[in-house]
């Protein structure tokens, strides 16, 4: 069997395991079961997974569950105890301790005082806080990606598949930047019908064989909002961009897709240190 055939086999196994993790996050995920899905011994599979993703399977599961828990805290009134139980923590104390270590504050406080609260109106008055906005003119950009359908909070599944394909095919390059392309408004489109793409920047000579697809970001002017903090908090940034910045900017929206550029990696930095740039396409001036 050639090296390409061997890594093609690993890619399929990575996809199976990644899909299983995302579809069963609310269940008891036994690491030996994941090894069975990969059709490799636990000893070898964990080494292959870590070599590709630079993270252990256990760390991936813990990070994703906390990400989903943060989303529940931001967007629902479900009790902290019930959220803890939903995401695999049998007691509130262990959930609180683990969440605080990752997000910098206990979950109940995060719900009341987290970054997503910083830009909300107070006493009927608009928040005085502002995000950092710059106007950039960019050239057309080629992307390589994998489509995702469903909640935008779950696009990590497509990124897992994307990086698994890039590494297994030996086409990953250190200068590739992570980009998320989002086609629908989650306030207007049902969650199960939301469309997005997990992408990396890539020159046109990088092969795009299925499930990889090629996309193009249009050149032109963009308002770029820099967001620091958990992905679960970014809804507030989008609302501020549209409701506060855009009407006062004197600029008009261009009919192109919005996208996000991820400046660091959630596997390598804590949630509060994540840096994301949101690109809003603008009509040219004049």
Ranges with pLDDT <50 over ≥5 residues?
none
CATH topology of the largest domain: Multidrug-efflux Transporter 1 Regulator Bmrr, Chain A
β-strand amount: 15-25%
Q: Please give the largest β-sheet.
A: 8 strands, antiparallel
Structural class: alpha+beta
Assign the CATH architecture of the largest domain: Alpha-Beta Barrel
The CATH superfamily of the largest domain is identified as Regulatory factor, effector binding domain
Shape: globular
Q: Can you list the strand order of the major beta sheet? A: 1-6-8-7-3-4-2-5
Provide the helix percentage: 40-55%
Q: Helix count?
A: 9
Rg (C-alpha, Å): 20 Å
Q: Return the CATH class of the largest domain.
A: Alpha Beta
- What is the number of E strands? 8
Distance between the termini: 61 Å
Overall pLDDT metric: 87
Q: What's the domain count?
A: 2
Helix and strand sequence: HHHHHHHEEHEEEEHEE
Domain HTH araC/xylS-type: 15-113
Pfam families: GyrI-like, HTH_18
Protein name: Helix-turn-helix domain-containing protein
GO molecular function, one term: DNA-binding transcription factor activity
Q: Could you give the topology of this structure?
A:
Blueprint: H1 3-23, H2 31-38, H3 42-53, H4 57-75, H5 80-86, H6 92-103, H7 107-113, E1 132-138, E2 141-149, H8 156-168, E3 178-182, E4 195-201, E5 213-217, E6 220-228, H9 234-249, E7 258-262, E8 275-282
Antiparallel strand pairs: 1-6, 2-4, 2-5, 3-4, 3-7, 6-8, 7-8
């Amino acid at each position: 069997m050639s090296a390409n055939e061997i890594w093609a086999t690993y890619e399929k196994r990575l996809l199976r395991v990644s899909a299983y993790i995302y579809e069963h996050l609310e269940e008891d995920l036994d690491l030996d079961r994941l090894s069975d899905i990969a059709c490799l011994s636990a000893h070898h599979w964990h080494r292959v997974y870590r070599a590709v993703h630079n993270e252990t399977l256990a760390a991936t599961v813990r990070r994703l569950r906390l990400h989903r828990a943060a989303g529940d805290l931001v967007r629902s009134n479900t009790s902290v105890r019930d959220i803890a139980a939903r995401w695999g923590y049998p007691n509130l104390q262990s959930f609180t301790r683990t969440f605080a270590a990752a997000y910098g504050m206990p979950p109940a406080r995060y719900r009341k005082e987290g970054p997503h609260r910083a830009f909300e109106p107070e006493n009927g008055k608009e928040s005085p806080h502002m995000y950092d906005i710059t106007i950039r003119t960019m050239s057309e950009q080629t992307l390589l990606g994998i489509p995702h359908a469903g909640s935008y909070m779950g696009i990590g599944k497509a990124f897992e598949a994307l990086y698994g394909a890039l590494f297994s095919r030996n086409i990953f390059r250190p200068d590739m930047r992570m980009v998320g392309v989002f086609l629908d408004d989650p306030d207007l489109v049902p969650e199960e019908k939301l469309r997005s793409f997990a992408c990396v920047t890539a020159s046109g000579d990088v092969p795009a064989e299925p499930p990889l697809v090629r996309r193009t970001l249009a050149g032109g002017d963009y308002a770029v909002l820099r967001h620091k903090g958990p992905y679960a908090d970014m809804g507030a940034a989008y609302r501020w961009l549209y409701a506060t910045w855009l009407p006062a900017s004197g600029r008009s929206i261009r009919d192109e897709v919005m996208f996000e550029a991820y400046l660091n990696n959630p596997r390598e930095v804590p949630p509060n240190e994540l840096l994301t740039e949101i690109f809003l396409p603008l009509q040219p001036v004049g």
